[in-house]
Design a protein that fits this description.
Elements: E1 5-9, E2 14-18, H1 25-33, H2 43-62, H3 68-82, H4 101-118, H5 131-135, H6 141-178, E3 183-188, E4 191-197, H7 198-217, H8 220-223, E5 225-226, H9 243-255, E6 260-261, H10 265-270, H11 273-299, E7 310-311, H12 329-352, E8 355-356, E9 359-360, H13 363-387, E10 393-394, H14 396-405, H15 414-417, H16 419-431, H17 436-443, H18 448-454, H19 457-460
Parallel strand pairs: 5-6
Antiparallel strand pairs: 1-2, 3-4, 7-10, 8-9
Helix pairs in contact: 1-4, 2-3, 2-4, 2-6, 2-9, 3-4, 4-6, 6-7, 6-13, 7-11, 11-12, 11-13, 12-13, 16-17
Length: about 475
């Protein structure tokens, strides 16, 4: 059955809009113009837009620029958008006009139609509530869209990303304590090195995440600076002088986050450095996550032909053809997430370069990629902690065997017999496939009692602080 339509008008002319849609002519025109990817803005971003529009409506009523009847309806409709009731009405592709005007108007039109409905009117009755004149009062896409990016990003950082990273750090820290007495061979260049404890290795992983947490926390100050009230280019044209500050006060109330006015509204319009800064921190975390995930895959390799020093939780069968096989699927997922986040950062970097004169004109891709990276990193870190790290077990006997067999134990006697002599013994032990202790004793360079004291494996690991 053919879909019914209504006809609406924008500044270009008439446009057919699905009769059931809350959006209007400008959104429908954008849908026709940008059939690019099928990607839509995230729930978190739409929530930020809804909260901004609700805050703006309340402030415009306070300032007596908007009558209370209209303003209250707009505020209520916008809060419905923030709560996710109308996500299906946000139909514009991510790849669109660089200012995000199409999506800002998508929000304005949906909120206007819903507010009209609340007042007993019919959708499209812009005389009752106009998407530009009333919903967008005191605003421009140029200040609303970057404000929405940073509101959504900071909320995502505080409610998902940082809690997940802290959980992952704590999981590694608990394992560091649990494995503190598990001596094993370290490996540098993937070659045998001196002894280390498994706990010391895991303490390093925890520290990587803790450093990442600090990097993310250090972006809060710049993310919290909002350009709202700057309107088109930062001058605040068509906005009440108190509008921006008051909207930010309302956003603090709605989100619980300590937003503030941008120190320089022109900088806040011209570039998206705060977004690039957060994306850079996420990239560094992705690098660390990749290193840790790959280490766990190596340490768990086997069980018969690999290192087999740890056992990862068996969360699912690993092969459709090899019975009993279990693969490190959680670390593999982490690696794929990290690769995606690093790719997102590259796109955000390029997009950030496109602050042409008084406005960045690649904001939609920054919004999509940054919020996706926050979501992916937060979710992956949570799963990594819960379904992998917390369940890791040490294969203590295998670790001890490797610690005893590493030929680099000879390093401990090098200060006594000299580097060259120690290197000769190292080579002999390898050539004759002998334990390093036996090779040293056969050389007669150190008394057996003294050698036992020097090659006390636990003592050899105590040079570090963990």
């Amino acid at each position: 059955m053919p879909q019914k339509h209504r006809t609406e008008t924008d500044s270009i002319g008439e446009m057919r809009v699905p009769a059931s849609a809350y959006y209007g002519a400008q959104t429908a025109r954008a849908v026709e113009n940008f059939p690019i990817s099928g990607l839509r803005f995230s729930r978190r971003f739409i929530a930020a837009l809804g909260n901004i529009k609700a805050a703006a409506a309340r402030v415009n009523v306070q300032l007596k620029l908007l009558d209370a009847r209209r303003g209250t309806a707009i505020e209520h409709a916008a809060l419905e958008v923030a709560d996710g009731r109308w996500d299906g009405e946000f139909v514009v592709d991510v790849f669109q006009t660089g200012s995000g005007t199409s999506t800002n108007m998508n929000a304005n039109e949906v909120i206007a139609s819903r507010a009209i409905e609340m007042l007993g009117g019919e959708r499209g009755d812009t005389a009752l509530i106009h998407p530009n004149d009333h919903v967008n009062m005191g605003q421009s896409s140029n200040d609303v869209f970057p404000t929405a990016i940073q509101v959504a990003a900071l909320v995502g950082v505080e409610t998902l990303l940082l809690p997940s990273l802290r959980s992952l750090a704590e999981a590694f820290e608990r394992k560091a304590v649990e494995f503190a007495d598990v001596v094993k061979a370290a490996r540098t260049h993937l070659q045998d090195a001196v002894p280390i404890t498994l706990g010391q290795e895991f303490s390093g992983y925890a520290s990587i995440i803790r450093h990442g947490i600090v990097r993310v926390e250090n972006t809060r100050g710049h993310l919290s600076e909002l350009p709202i009230g700057g309107t088109a280019v930062g001058t605040g044209l068509n906005a009440h002088p108190e509008f921006g500050a008051r909207v930010i006060t309302e956003l603090r109330r709605l989100t619980g986050q300590l937003f503030r006015r941008a120190e320089n509204s022109f900088e806040a319009m011209q570039d998206r450095d705060a977004c690039a800064e957060l994306s850079g921190a996420l990239k560094v975390i992705a690098i660390g996550l990749t290193k840790m995930a790959n280490d766990l895959r190596l340490l768990a390799s086997g069980p018969r032909t690999g290192l087999n020093e740890i056992e990862l939780p068996a969360v699912q069968p690993g092969s459709s053809i090899m019975p009993g096989k279990v693969n490190p699927v959680i670390p593999e997922m982490v690696n794929m997430v990290a690769a995606h986040v690093i790719g997102n950062d590259a796109a955000i970097t390029i997009a950030g370069l496109n602050g042409s004169l008084d406005l960045n004109v690649m904001m939609p891709v920054i919004a999509h990629n940054l919020l996706e990276s926050i979501e992916l990193t937060g979710n992956a870190s949570k799963v990594f902690a819960e379904r992998c790290v917390r369940g890791i077990q040490a294969n203590r006997e295998q670790c001890l065997t490797h610690a005893e067999r590493t030929a680099s134990l000879v390093t401990a006697i090098a200060p006594i017999i000299g580097y060259d002599r120690a290197a000769t013994i190292f080579k002999k032990a390898l050539a004759e496939n002998k334990p390093i202790r036996q090779a040293i004793l056969e050389e007669g360079v150190i008394a057996p009692e003294r050698l036992d004291e020097i090659l006390d494996l636990k003592k050899l690991t105590r040079g570090g602080r963990v």
